[in-house]
Amino acid sequence: MSEKPIETKVDEAQTAALELATLSDERRRAGLEAIADAIDEHHDEILAANEKDVTEAEKLLEAGEYSQALVDRLKLSASKLEDISEMVRSVAAQEDPLEKTLEARRLDEDLELYKVAVPIGVVGTVFESRPDALVQIAALGLRSGNAVILKGGSEAAHSNRVLFEIIEEATATADVPDGWAQQIEAREDVDAMLAMDDSIDLLMPRGSSAFVSYIQDNTSIPVLGHTEGVCHVFVDGEANLEMAEEIAFDAKVQYPAVCNAVETLLVHEDVATDFLPGIVERYEDADVELRGDEATREVVDVDPVTDDDWNTEYGDLELSIKVVDSLSAAMGHITEYGSKHTESIVTEDADRAARFMRGLDSASVYHNASTRFADGYRYGLGAEVGISTGKIHARGPVGLEGLTTYKYHLEGDGQLVATYAGEDAKPYLHEEFDAEWTPGRLSEK
Amino acid sequence: MSEKPIETKVDEAQTAALELATLSDERRRAGLEAIADAIDEHHDEILAANEKDVTEAEKLLEAGEYSQALVDRLKLSASKLEDISEMVRSVAAQEDPLEKTLEARRLDEDLELYKVAVPIGVVGTVFESRPDALVQIAALGLRSGNAVILKGGSEAAHSNRVLFEIIEEATATADVPDGWAQQIEAREDVDAMLAMDDSIDLLMPRGSSAFVSYIQDNTSIPVLGHTEGVCHVFVDGEANLEMAEEIAFDAKVQYPAVCNAVETLLVHEDVATDFLPGIVERYEDADVELRGDEATREVVDVDPVTDDDWNTEYGDLELSIKVVDSLSAAMGHITEYGSKHTESIVTEDADRAARFMRGLDSASVYHNASTRFADGYRYGLGAEVGISTGKIHARGPVGLEGLTTYKYHLEGDGQLVATYAGEDAKPYLHEEFDAEWTPGRLSEK
Lengths: 445, 445
Known about the structure:
The structure is a homodimer.
Chain A: H1 6-20, H2 25-41, H3 43-62, H4 68-74, H5 78-93, E1 101-108, E2 111-119, E3 122-126, H6 131-143, E4 147-151, H7 157-173, E5 181-183, H8 187-194, E6 202-205, H9 209-217, E7 231-235, H10 241-253, E8 262-268, H11 269-285, E9 289-292, H12 294-299, E10 303-304, H13 307-310, E11 318-324, H14 327-337, E12 342-346, H15 350-359, E13 364-369, E14 386-388, E15 396-398, E16 404-415, E17 431-432
Parallel strand pairs in A: 3-4, 3-6, 4-5, 7-8, 7-12, 8-11, 9-10, 9-11, 12-13
Antiparallel strand pairs in A: 1-2, 1-17, 2-16, 14-15
Helix pairs in contact in A: 2-5, 2-7, 3-4, 3-7, 5-6, 6-7, 10-11
Domain Aldehyde dehydrogenase (chains A, B): 3-296
Pfam family, one (chains A, B): Aldedh
Protein name (chains A, B): Gamma-glutamyl phosphate reductase
């Protein structure tokens, strides 16, 4: 990795971004294929670097500073590397998100407006210490024509350096503009990035909620990120209780460490006595630690809940339970304590489901399905860039589309605004029509 | 205007926002009709309040602190009030931007995902001292189901207070949720808003570029705004010079005070001798103050340009001219000095036009048309919320759509993620299909 200052790296990324924006779909795909091939060809080099990271991490594990889970996530193998190059090829296979015409409107005869999808530009990313994260983010950036600044976790420093060099070299041979990907390692460089609002168009931090908040609070660059996931399942009085039990179980137990797992189960009082004993038994068999409010504890024997539980993302086999007396009370609880991530109602009553889905301000609202479906792959978005708990630009699971913006192309024939203003103003047509923008649209007619 | 603290106002707006999100198109339109009628019925009251603002402004005009233009903009009349209520009715007539299904995807049999347009929530706005601005922003907010915090210029304080009361009363009688619109007047309240990232979803400041930058630098709330408009017209070597002259003239002279007027004219050296004398004569006849680089001054007699001119938004009858030796040089200049607002190339060569349009990172890029078309009304977006020079969420002229976001509705039949994971994972269908989300979609089958 070169020792260029961060300002030079971001400058180079800006220059590359302009070229990337006009790079054909074919060449961007060829760049990705080159990355995948290079990873396949450099297993030894990558695994040797990774071994250094793992050794250092194991020392810290012995010292009690790291968890086994962290060490496991760090560790690469030949088969994991195959998965990674496979992932890169699947990103290459995704439909091109660029230069689609999103809208076409005829303002007047021979005055055609096209809204065209384009890359965002320079995207600064900071991500967790899984070495596959660097490859994934670089791949998504290239697919969508964005220049990327990559800052990975220091635990994966050796692996990331080698992976970055491989990516840089592979894309250079595939004629992707130099400088499209830049790696930074120092925490000071992250802070320097936060001030570069003239040259960085978007920041995408991944990591703890505290870290994402820190980024948001210290930059005027737009931030796409994910803070907390305090998700709810509401078992309505009109629920099919068998279905409710399956959903409540899946939403907590299938994979409790992720942001779309349920943290609070809300149960309508009409079904509390019928529903709670069965689900509590299943949870306890699966070692879920349960806490309940008073009404819950009248029906089942669980620990008392505290007010802090309601807005805690456990990320583990823990769950809080509350009995509510109405749909409104359930919605009120979610509005007060939720993080606007994902909520599900289980009910046979379509109108009640619609009230729940319309009335809650969460990125994903479900009717009779597990909250665990909130994920870019499951949503069919292809690769996932991340999940956004913000409401601006992209919300919920974010795919390649979230890495694009648009620009207006206007094709005219010498039209002047003066013609359409004042006393004898010519009226606009403003007709939507169906066409892709292509160079010289008007002259071809 | 009530003397509630800003925190109370924002709380009320948040509560109202949840109700507004489920308010039918019909009731939102009825609210707007009620506003328009109320304005029609209260001319005397509004004009009396406006008279106070104008009197105060005239005193400051005499003292040399205000400009005549500012006083003119402040002043209302019966006919201006008719225009304002007409504008509100036209916002009501706009197509509903809400609850449209933007995408529908079948994840599996009876597991349907809908991406549905919804309001953003609570939008904080700060705007210039034209009294019609308050009504316009409130109207756009209500049409798109957003609660709005309104902060107008202090010069229009009396007018704004009366207009706000009329709006508040009219929408209350039309059953729009109380508290959907909130007025603030103190500068301290604006600063307080900047810190309320838990309750305000978007800030839309209008005003000077310095003011918008101040807002961006002092909040972690997303900001949609417009900083500078340094727009360019490039007369290519392959231009129809007659057309080029008309466009260059219109882009500067038709209305020089606005952000989409051209500030720098770039001329290819191949046509400089043929093109410059004619356009310079027309500009001079229209009292445009001209500055040129050396090559320009070899052809026409204009003042020398300074480096500062290239990134100055004159907003007046002033223009800088540069002769360039290539399309790339023109693009390089725009990339270096432009503000990514609007640029136009005049050329008969479609490929050169395409290079210009693809290669520049501006919100609007034109071929053979005046930069002055960059405007929400001309683009056919209906009413314009503002123009964004950012690239995230909404870019260029922003219509009602820019005041919406989306949310995912998932309709299931008890589906669990466990079914689609692990060894015997059921594959997803991921079929796009054509349907609007309606309550109880699945149960109706």
